[in-house]
Specification:
The structure is a homodimer.
Chain A lengths: L1 E8 L3 H13 L5 E5 L28 H6 L3 E4 L2 E5 L2 E4 L4 E9 L3 E3 L12 E3 L4 H13 L2 E5 L3 H12 L3 E6 L11 H13 L3 E4 L3 E5 L6 E4 L4 E3 L2 E4 L3 E3 L2 H6 L3 E2 L3 E2 L12 E3 L6 E2 L6 E2 L4 H12 L17 E6 L2 E7 L2 H6 L4 E9 L11 E9 L5 E8 L3 H13 L4 H5 L17 H18 L1
Parallel strand pairs in A: 1-2, 1-6, 2-3, 6-19, 8-15, 9-10, 9-15, 10-11
Antiparallel strand pairs in A: 4-5, 5-6, 7-16, 12-13, 13-14, 17-18, 20-21, 22-23, 23-26, 24-25, 25-26
Helix pairs in contact in A: 1-7
């Protein structure tokens, strides 16, 4: 029987970052990472295996991160049971741990749609061979129907459109990205996709998948039939809680394994991170469905450095929810609260908005319009959320706004803040969107005071 | 005699933003902006009038910002004197104010170089006709010598190289950007410019400008002669303090008009902002030479909203110094302390570094290498500075790091921070440079603890 100081189960971003962090923090500890898959994929790159990346295998998370950067032993095997601190693996091997980190991830949810077992029906499974098979189907497919208009759905649509396919998205709600962005942003995504040739069906459910053994079409709840050579179900995912059940850990079937703010499970010396760990919202403290690789890795780093003693300052503050994506040539980003969520929570808030160009003067080649919406708390004037679309700079702009929200910056803090601007890189200082949107909100308050 | 509640003198970014901010804050106040130039230019766009922008006039700061966005009267005139609260203008007009904002800017410094009055010798003057004349000289010039390897110098070099000119930069110090970035970054700028065909002369002064009435060459302090059809002197600038002298305000000839932390001058009801206002360093509190449009505008917004009563929270924290630029296809950025400055100040610091690719997987078209260096205080673990180069995303990345420094985030705060990542927009979450460089610094501390 092999014995390790730290055993990580799961080879996705959470597990890998926990192993690296553990190695950085505790140089002398012996670490092993056990994963099921012979090859581990970069989850957020998966949509891009369908067009932008020539090979699915280009989206691989290198094993060297585990074996070299984390100095860990990589074990390709499956954990089947545990007794005290000894894990039994599918191969018959046994592994003893001092500290165990569960990072077993999530799997795509399957809705009760008749005919979902037909050939040509896919989900976004984090498996190389599965995705290579999907890519072979893509080669001969004409019509691709994507069920679910969340991030994965719109990113796959973007890829298949760029590959020249006929793409239809079917979304149950009345807007794309209905839970993560405000309606006007979902509608902007829709406009971009439609301009690329997509058909967007909103406010309808898929009732059945038609065809013999092979998909031929899908049928909506109003009996409309849409031809389909591939149906891709992207309606979210559920935590892989099998081991939690077997180990007797506290868990919630929808949200995942329960953990304290240091991500310790109900059993001593077992930590849980990533999609399998139940997460709390940064603002409400309530359990949340948001699952992101970047959050998973923040958790991995937190746990990796707290394994043998908790460094108190490293508290887990809950999921802020910082997303970015790119559809066509437009990048979208959101961090923190949307206006929809603020309404849902009955918050007293003010909105500031800005529309500008991300270079100055705006006549520069490559300049792109940018739109930013900020949500401030009305009483404390603290920044609660940001949504935006624009050029590629949105990718870091959304992170800048995340830092502002995490630091509870107020409108006044932002207004007097110093930022760097450059003609070839950013909006003009006089039109810098973060400042302009903040000034817009401040102006509304001043006018209220006068009124 | 006309009478206004607020009179702003100077039509650059500082003056314009003060006028806009005053109008947003005090809706009913009557505002005038007096400036000398018939057309106001965007200062940071000036280098780009020499190649990237077809016309110099594309770099204009629109008057509508004054007349519409700030609802102010625009007066093209020159202030010559003041008695009590009445300004006398060159035209003979008189203007009475309640609150006066001086934003008279800076002018390029002229070093004592023999022959600097010859034709073909230019400075970076913020004047449309002057710059159009420079552009006409450019059309027939073959050899252009730039004296001074700071930001303006390297940006002009980049422009003239792109325009097919023979460009030489002469810099007195041993590295480009000697005062604002660490040597390895100045050296990287040098490598990029040399690859574009520039000749870089370091560690030498220009002794004389040769030729009859027209420039023919420049001579260095070691008698080397470099042929030149244009010499562009870019060695920094000095505050325009003429009015301060006339008005009897406290000032420092090198740093500018003295002001308190709300940017009030030594005379009641006179505020000073932008390049003409003496500035203090964010870290040391000492007077600093850093003059930036973005800082000027932060000051303009601060003063504009504090004119009739100071809103105490809006303190001016001193100049952080957030720069970005782009040379060739590489963007450079810096915020806060460099390692050179930390050494100069005898600070106890630790460095964290990261080198990665700004897309993931790195095989994406348009992906660019990125390098980041962070400076942390050793005892408090607070982030003090950041330097970087990479793709265009550096433009917002440097602002994100400015926000972190302004908020005094520690290595631990950053390590557990949540950021959004996306294959087409950012580095991979496992290689995100801000986290990786922070983890690098943390790792050094852990290893010290063990040792």
């Amino acid at each position: 029987m092999k014995k390790y100081d730290v055993v990580v189960v799961g080879g996705g971003p959470a597990g890998v970052s926990a192993a690296i962090s553990a190695h950085n923090t505790y140089q002398t500890k012996k670490i092993a990472l056990i994963r099921r898959e012979s090859i581990s994929l970069i989850p957020c790159g998966i949509p891009y295996t369908q067009h932008s990346l020539e090979k699915v295998s280009s989206d691989t998370l290198p094993d060297a991160l585990v074996t070299q950067k984390a100095g860990a032993e990589l074990i390709i095997d499956d954990v089947v049971s545990k007794k005290d601190k000894v894990l039994s693996l599918a191969s018959g091997d046994q592994v003893e741990y001092d500290k165990l980190v569960l990072a077993t991830g999530s799997s795509p949810s399957l809705p009760p749609i008749a005919g979902a077992d037909k050939k040509g029906v896919f989900q976004v499974v984090k498996d190389l061979e599965y995705l290579e098979n999907l890519k072979r189907y893509r080669d001969t497919a004409t019509n691709i129907v994507i069920i679910g208009g969340g991030y994965i759905g719109i990113e796959l649509a973007d890829e298949y459109l760029k590959h020249g396919k006929q793409v239809t998205i079917v979304e149950l709600e009345d807007h794309l990205l209905p839970t993560t962005m405000d309606f006007e942003y979902g509608d902007k995504v829709q406009a971009v996709l439609e301009e690329m040739g997509a058909k967007i069906v909103l406010g309808h459910a898929v009732r059945a998948i038609e065809g013999q053994s092979m998909i031929r079409a899908i049928t909506l709840d109003d009996d409309t039939e849409i031809p389909a050579d591939i149906a891709l179900i992207c309606i979210g995912c559920k935590p892989n809680i099998t081991l939690a059940e077997k180990f007797g850990l506290d868990y919630d079937a929808r949200y995942g394994i329960k953990a304290d703010e240091y991500l310790r499970s109900s059993e001593k010396d077992i930590f849980v991170i990533g999609d399998v760990a139940a997460k709390h919202d940064f603002f409400t403290g309530k359990l949340t469905d948001i699952k992101l690789a970047s959050t998973a890795m923040a958790e991995g780093r937190l746990v990796g450095s707290n394994l043998f003693e908790v460094k108190v300052i490293r508290r887990y503050l809950g999921v802020l929810g910082s997303f970015s994506t790119k559809i066509g040539s437009i990048a979208f980003g959101v961090s923190g609260l949307t206006e929809n969520k603020a309404k849902e929570m009955n918050l007293d808030y003010e909105v500031g908005e800005a529309t500008t160009i991300d270079r100055h003067p705006g006549s520069f080649v490559g300049a792109s319009p940018i739109h930013l919406k900020l949500i401030f708390a009305r009483y404390s004037h603290v920044l609660l959320g940001a949504e935006m679309y624009g050029g590629d700079s949105v990718g870091e702009l959304v992170n800048m706004l995340s830092v502002m929200i995490l630091n509870k910056m107020t409108d006044m803090d932002i207004d007097t803040m110093q930022i760097g601007t450059h003609p070839l890189l950013t909006a003009s200082p006089i039109a810098y969107p973060v400042i302009t949107a903040t000034v817009d909100a401040i102006g509304k308050w001043y006018r209220e005071d006068v009124a």
